[in-house]
Amino acid sequence: MKWAHRLEQALLRVLPIQWRARLLNESSESRAILRGIFWVAFFVLAAKFVAAGKEVVVAWRYGTSATLEGYLLLFNLASWPISLIHSVMGFVLVPWLVRLRQADVAVCAYRQQQVLAMVWGLAAILTVITACTLPLLLNHGALGLSLQGRHAAQGLLPWMAAIVGLGIVAAWHACQLMSLQKHANTFLEAMPALCLLLAVSLVKDADVASLLWATLGGFVLQFVLSAWVARAAGMPILPAWPRKMALSTARLSSAGWLLASQLVMSGAGVIDQLILAHLQQGSLAAYGYANRIIALALSLSALVFGRAMLPVFSAADKAESYRLAGSWAWRAFWVGVAGAVVIIVMAHPAVALLYQRGAFGANDTDAVAHLLVPLAFQIPFYLAVIVWVNWAAGRSELARPMWWAATIGCASKFIFAFVLISIYEQGAAAVSLAQTVWLLVYLLVLNKFVKKLKNRQFSEKRERW
Questions:
Q1: Prior bond to 349 cis, omega within 30?
Q2: 205: left (phi > 0), else alpha (psi -120 to 50), else beta?
């Protein structure tokens, strides 16, 4: 895109001479990462601006009501498979797509169509499973909602399950664009938030049905636009029946371990939701508001680092990619420290500015700000983990260690949370602070396996020499 190139050149010209010289002296891989960081940040900022507007109008209309809690819990359960599969697809398929570009154009297109057929089949199966599972969970009463919240959630069934299939196919098109280092898909992920913003703002007396159809409309829009942008970039968007397995056994095994690790981590988030739903009313909604502020900060940084780095790490050789990962992990950590300090200092005024209006009162502001501070502690460790995970994702020998790191980290998190909940009455604060514990443990365990791998590779090279 010519306008994008012109914008990059204009920004380069306004940089101080010292910064410009340092940028030009960076390696080509680091410059590609910086370029990716800029464009992902550009689209993430635009997407999160839309998401922040959605949060403002939802807080104005619903506050921390039981209706909102019913919608949030069911939406979080339905979107769980999307985030799980999206993460695994990114880690497995983006490196595969980067290396696939070295093949003949026709072969490259056909193999992508084969994988797309598998994606469509997976999307259909998970949609049916979700549609059958959500009513059982809700009717069983194990979700811990109040009677009003359960009634609101029942109004979302079974249609909320449709977002699973739409989101998974859109995630495949996102992987196609990421492999080309094109990041417009990042903004397209805001389409559900945009439709919710419009529905809640424009529909008088918006009820839970308005939330449902706005959410579905947003996912349909994301699916259509993602396919259109991928096609414009020269990628196939229609499936072809695979005559044989399109992915190698090693890559499928790696995908299995990555799926298991993502299942552990995302499952921990669902357990958080269930713990909060069993606490006093308002805990789940207050945590949700605070967590979405942190998600805004993490998306403006973690998505930027991860999506910019993964295709670059996949294309570089092992030694160079390891050096890049080590350098960028420290940079990401200190960026996270600065971001955490800003959020801790600005917690109360930020919550008041974003949410305090309509049904959202001063007491709600105090509750959300009280949870925002411990949630901010996770940011530096989260960003360092993001760098190492994106480096390790393209290496099948580290897929199983990533599962061990996730399992040990989540176990440490819940032990810590339950100890704090048993000692103090502030259960939601304990859940918030436990996020930092599991990220720290995850980082330490994964780093141990990475060092062991590097030492083994060094020993093998020395023996060959």
A1: no
A2: left
Q: What secondary structure does DSSP assign to 342-373, as a single string?
A: HHHHTHHHHHHHHH-STT--HHHHHHHHHHHH
337-356, pLDDT tens digit by residue? 988 898 888 888 888 887 77
CA dist list (Å): 352 to 56, 320, 360, 393: 11, 46, 9, 39
State both tokens at 75: 């939406």
Residue type, 398: L
What residue ranges in 63-153 does DSSP mark as E strands? none
Distance in angstroms (rounded) separating the CA atoms of residues 432 and 427: 9
CA-based torsion, 170, 176, 178, 181: positive or negative: negative
Q: What are the tens digits of pLDDT across the range 230-244?
A: 888 888 888 887 666
Give the three-class secondary structure for 425.
Answer: coil
- Summarize pLDDT for 353-397 with one digit per residue, the tens: 877 777 777 777 887 888 888 888 888 888 888 888 888 776 767
Q: What is the pLDDT of residue 465?
A: 44
The three-state secondary structure class of 440 is helix
CB 360 within 8 A of CB 60: yes
Residue 144 CB neighbours (<10 A): 17
Whole-structure pTM value: 0.69
* Sequence-separated (6 or more) residues with CB below 8 Å from residue 444: none
Alpha-carbon torsion 441, 444, 446, 452, what sign? negative
pLDDT at res. 15: 62
For the chain, give the number of residues.
465
What's the 3-state SS for 203-234? CCCCCHHHHHHHHHHHHHHHHHHHHHHHHHCC
Q: Are 71 and 273 in contact (CB under 8 A)?
A: no
Q: Residue 27 has what DSSP assignment?
A: -
The mean per-residue pLDDT over the stretch 422-428 comes to 67
